[in-house]
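User: Could you go from structure to sequence for me? I need the amino acid at each position, not a summary. Structure tokens:
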């Protein structure tokens, strides 16, 4: 099983702004297209806080897994997992029926940290936003320091990198 991270952040590790309508401090339509196109019809995993920022149209055209510890929570267009173990078990079942689907961990910071620290990610598609936007949700850039980095796209406002993690537990 191959789980790939896909997120955008500034060089200072800002990934979100909880007071913004979108949850993000920036708006780059082409970057959103990259995210939408890459994840379309695939499996996406996210934390419950990220879920609320995404449209029903977006969620329903992907197999959406949401991590939440809330008892009996039901969210439209989503399968709920109460723990990381639960999530891996569900992924194992789904991928049997959808062997061609890719699996993307899309954030936010809490869930990204959980997956990175647990060495569950093989690659990371990281969009580095060039402008130093301010925000209140951060991901520590130290997690990417030892990764091999390949530039996928570079434009005026951001660069998209493919990062390969050296240690990866799932096979
Ligand atoms: N720039 C980007 O690429 C990007 C990507 C995604 C999100 N974001 C932004 O990031 C922000 C949200 O990130 P966040 O870190 O605050 O929240 P988050 O990671 O989206 O969600 C955190 C929630 O996940 C659940 N959770 C955490 N650990 C769990 C575990 N081990 N087992 C089960 N459930 C677990 C809990 O939900 P319950 O409270 O329901 O129990 C927790 O409150 C938003 O501003 C969003 O827009 C940015």
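Assistant: Here is the amino acid at each position, in order:
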């Amino acid at each position: 099983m191959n789980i790939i991270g896909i997120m955008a952040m500034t060089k200072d590790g800002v990934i979100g702004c909880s007071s913004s309508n979108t949850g993000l401090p920036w708006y780059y339509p082409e970057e959103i297209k990259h995210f939408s196109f890459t994840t379309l019809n695939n499996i996406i995993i996210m934390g419950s806080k990220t879920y609320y920022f995404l449209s029903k149209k977006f969620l329903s055209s992907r197999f959406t897994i949401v991590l939440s510890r809330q008892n009996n929570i039901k969210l439209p267009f989503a399968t709920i997992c109460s723990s990381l173990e639960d999530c891996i078990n569900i992924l194992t079942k789904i991928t049997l029926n959808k062997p061609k689907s890719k699996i993307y961990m899309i954030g936010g910071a809490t869930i990204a940290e959980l997956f990175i620290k647990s060495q569950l990610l093989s690659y990371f598609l990281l969009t580095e936003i060039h402008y130093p936007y301010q925000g209140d949700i951060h991901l520590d850039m130290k997690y990417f320091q030892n990764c091999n980095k390949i530039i996928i796209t570079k434009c005026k406002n951001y660069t998209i990198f493919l990062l390969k993690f050296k240690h990866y537990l799932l096979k």
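One structural detail worth keeping in mind: The radius of gyration is 15 Å.
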